[in-house]
Amino acid sequence: QVQPVESGGGLVQAGGSLRLSCAASGRTFNTNVMGWFRQAPGKEREFVAAISWGGSLTYYADSVKGRFAISRDNAKNTVYLQMNSLQPEDTALYYCAARPKSWSGPLTVANSDEYDYWGQGTQVTVSS
Q1: pLDDT tens, residue by residue, 114-125
Q2: Could you say which DSSP state residue 123 is in?
Q3: What are the pLDDT digits (tens) for 43-70?
Q4: Count of CB atoms within 10 A of residue 98's CB?
Q5: How far apart are CA 101 and CA 98, in angstroms?
Q6: Cβ contact 18:11 at 8 Å
Q7: The pLDDT value given to residue 35
Q8: Burial per residue of 107-126, b for 16 or more beta-carbon CB atoms within 10 angstroms, e otherwise
Q9: Which region, left, alpha or beta, applies to residue 85 given φ > 0 means left and ψ of -120 to 50 means alpha?
């Protein structure tokens, strides 16, 4: 079992920045791929970003490419999501997820069904 716990959400004005953190505990060898997803009210959960174990592979949703950056520190069992130039449409509950299987292409790591362990989420609200 892996328990991801997100933190770092909050209220920010449009154009501002936030850094989300996700600390994983438990069987952390099952965190081969880590991903961030988000869900806005009334909408389906959507993929945001993913990163491989070593950090050499990353993949982003088109909507956040160039504004968000995912990274990880395996010594701390933590993955980060640096979010810059935030817009009101980025408002959502952000979830961290862990995938035990190794990286197998962007379409796979963008699929929420490929992740076995999920955190409770951290709220990000961007005001206009």
Answers
A1: 999 999 999 999
A2: E
A3: 999 999 999 999 999 999 999 999 999 9
A4: 24
A5: 9
A6: no
A7: 97
A8: eebbebebbebbbebbebeb
A9: left
